[in-house]
Design a protein that fits this description.
Elements: H1 2-11, E1 41-43, E2 53-58, E3 65-69, E4 73-74, E5 80-88, E6 97-105, E7 111-115, E8 130-137, E9 145-153, E10 162-173
Length: 182
């Protein structure tokens, strides 16, 4: 019995599958994360568990959104995926809100769905690394590719500095079998 428990603990790291994103920990830069209109910056001295984080900011106060995109990754229609990230924002440049979105694409590279537009991160603890995690299902019109989108929403007026920092961005295929059979 003790041997079984020990084996479960040692093997539990692989229970959730393989990280599907490239460079979600930002330990050596921000590539392949990008936005053709807004370049993210690499912070070599900041990070949640180890040095390295992605940062982007905006000087406008126009209720605008800024997006930073991962590469598109192959996914399986109908499968469940585990997502998560660490995030931080400075007290001197707190955005209106931050969130993580998953976009699903079909084989013709058409956007078929996004998730979750309504989930906004906790914005009550500036200058502190916080965590977000969730589960998404690829049940949206035959998505065969996914892309993670990190966001920053600017204030409508009065705040000229808005900054978001992200680290440890995760996208795993959930390897636990789920069925509607009862």
């Amino acid at each position: 019995m003790v041997l079984r428990c020990l084996l479960l603990v040692l093997l539990s790291g692989s229970v959730y599958g393989q990280q599907l994103l490239s460079n979600g920990h930002f330990t050596h830069g921000v590539s392949p994360w990008d936005n053709p209109y807004h370049t993210p910056q690499w912070l070599s001295t900041d990070g949640h568990h180890q040095p390295g984080a992605l940062m982007f900011s905006d000087q406008d106060n126009n209720s605008g959104s800024i997006y930073i995109y991962s590469e598109k990754i192959p996914v399986v229609p109908g499968y469940h995926y585990l997502i998560g990230t660490s995030y931080k924002y400075p007290a001197s440049a707190t955005p209106a809100y931050m969130k993580m979105i998953v976009e699903w694409y079909d084989a013709s590279d058409n956007l078929v769905s996004t998730w979750p537009w309504h989930t906004v991160f906790d914005m009550s603890q500036p200058d502190t690394w916080l965590n977000f995690d969730g589960e998404v299902s690829n049940d949206y019109g035959g998505g065969v590719f996914a892309r993670v989108v990190l966001t920053l929403q600017t204030h409508p007026a009065g705040t000229m500095n808005n900054e978001a920092r992200y680290d440890d961005v995760l996208f795993y295929q959930d390897t636990v079998f789920m069925s509607d059979f009862e």
